[in-house]
Every structure is written in structure tokens, then in C-alpha cells.
Amino acid sequence: QVQVVESGGGLVQPGGSLRLSCAASGFTFGDYDVAWFRQAPGKEREFVARIRWNGRTDYADSVKGRFTISRDGAKKTAYLQMNSLKPEDTAVYYCTSINSWGQGTQVTVSS
């Protein structure tokens, strides 16, 4: 059973940092892309970052230079390091791989 589970969200002040984790199970983690999306209240879900099976990465323009996606094959976990957070980064963040989605983790950026 393919499953991804996010963790690491929370409340952080503007300019702060958070690291999200996405734990995968039920498939050969290293063979597939992993992506992060987010959805803010009243808005559509949007792409944030992707790490491909070969390690190449893609980012939304809004997070380039601030967010870094990575993966640890041994731990079957992907990460999203988020620095210089802004209030507009507030959203539920979702991890996805092989069309399987997690339940999301809330990130709130507020003073």
C-alpha cells in the first residue's frame, strides 16, 4: 500500500524556518519523483517543489532561493527546508508521490 505521511508543520514568525518531512512506504522510494504542494485558505492547491528520481529539483518561482527539497533514500523520507518564511507561505502543505497524497501539515507564518 503506497502511503506518504507529512510532519513538521507549525507556527513560526516571519523570517523563521521550518523543515517538513514526508515519510514514504509501500513502494521503491528511490524510483519515483516526490513533490510538495500547498493550499492556502480560499485558494487552489499549488505546486511548491519537486525532486525527481535522479535528484534533479524544480521549484515554484515564489519559493526559489528560500526553500530546498531533498530526499534520503535510506530513510525513505523527503524533506522541505523552508527558510525566510513569509506570511504568504501560510498553508497546508502536502506531499505526493505516485499519485498518493498525505493528509497535509499546517504551516502558519505569523507574528
Element-level helix/strand string: EEEEEEEEEEE
How many DSSP H or I helices?
0
- Count of beta strands: 11
Form type: globular
- Cα(first) to Cα(last) distance is 40 Å
Q: Which structural category do the helix and sheet elements fall into?
A: mainly beta
Give the proportion of residues in helices.
Answer: under 10%
- Average predicted confidence as pLDDT: 96
| Radius of gyration over C-alpha positions, nearest whole angstrom | 13 Å
Uncertain residue segments: none
The main pleated sheet reads as: 7 strands, mixed
Task: Please state roughly what percent of the residues sit in beta strands, choosing from under 5%, 5-15%, 15-25%, 25-35%, 35-45% or over 45%.
Answer: over 45%
Task: Quickly describe the structure.
This protein is an all-beta fold. 0% of the residues lie in helices and 51% in strands.
Structure characterization notes:
The termini are far apart. The mean pLDDT is 96. This protein has 111 residues and is mainly β. The protein contains no helices and eleven strands. The radius of gyration is 13 Å and the shape is globular. Helix content is 0%, strand content 51%. Strands 2, 4, 5, 6, 9, 10 and 11 form a seven-stranded mixed sheet that branches.
